[in-house]
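I'd like us to work through together how a protein chain folds, taking it slowly. To get us started, please write out a protein record for me. Label the sequence line and the structure token line clearly, so we can match residues to local backbone shapes. Once you have written the record down, we can walk along the chain together.
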Amino acid sequence: MDTKDRQEFLSRGCKCAPQPHARQLKVFEHSCNKLDTFDWLKDIKPPDGYPVFDIAEVRFKNSRKEFFRTTPDLEIETGDIVAVESSPGHDIGIVTLTGEIVRLQLKSKNINPRTTEFRKIYRRAKISDIEKWVDAVRIEDDTMLRSRQMAWTLNLKMKISDVEYQGDRTKAVFYYTADERVDFRELIRVLADAFNVRIEMRQIGMRQEASRIGGIGSCGRELCCATWLTKFRSVSTNAARTQQLSLNPQKLAGQCSKLKCCINYENDCYLDYLKDMPDTSRELKTKRGKATFQKMDVLKKTVGYAYEESPNQIIMVPAERAKEIIALNEKGEVPDDLSSDAFETPENNNAIDREASPELGDSLTRFDKPSKSKKKRKKRKPRGQRQSGKQSEKN
């Protein structure tokens, strides 16, 4: 099997291409994939007489997973290639979970197994089923490239990002992205005549496209949506403001041209820290003068203020000290200064003035001190002059 076949079947959860005339024991295995699910109940046997849960989780291409109902006479295990009900015909997938763990999966997805109608698992895939499935998977990339050219010929403002053939090769789903509404009726006719299959167009978002294609993020790691992230939460600019990030679209946007999902990762932590921060709309009144809010360091729990007489000099004050001054001002009391332990920083400079706080390190002007004069070394004479000098001494 070449590398291309291996990459094509990795999207199905296979580590290698299935062999129609061999047992499919080593085709499926859990690897570093976001759709892998660990069955932590597989070693726990149910009580005697307890009915086996008759719903199984089946995986298809990329991020598509569905639940199907099994028949009482069909015994399937994780990793089996099965033929499932579809419209029309049947599809081929790989069983990822069976047993009681599927009941918990349905509960996490808010699906009631009693009221929901599930499609059926027909049988384990036969040799003819696997042969058709393998041929369909191998032509998906060529179909996607040809369909892009057809859409470009028809002047359609859309991008076909992925193609998925049904297991019986009677239907193909084309996933596309578009900024505006697209009339693709003529494209469907052209595609149906070219590939002789039933065509279904399915629009996806930019984030879903990035999760299917994959890539490397600005952090140097693989995209979260392509490795482990399965649910997309809405990301707003308020989360960026909460974390005091620069509202630069080029820095905040990911490869999907949307706000990065990782902005939400630490947002809850910042919201908890902000509860302990003082009210930044209040001015701090001291005998030296009024101080207004300039900036904030949430993780260090410090707040920066500047006096009216020197607005370019920011003084970092602990959050507890700022709240203490606000409480004193409400009582009508005015402290002498913001804090004796405050650190003054110049404008547009986040570094702490170490000259004002020598306990934090060496002074910034330590390199300005004159160095000690070094002794002058005697210049060595050229080699010829040294030899002539030695001969003169001998004579």
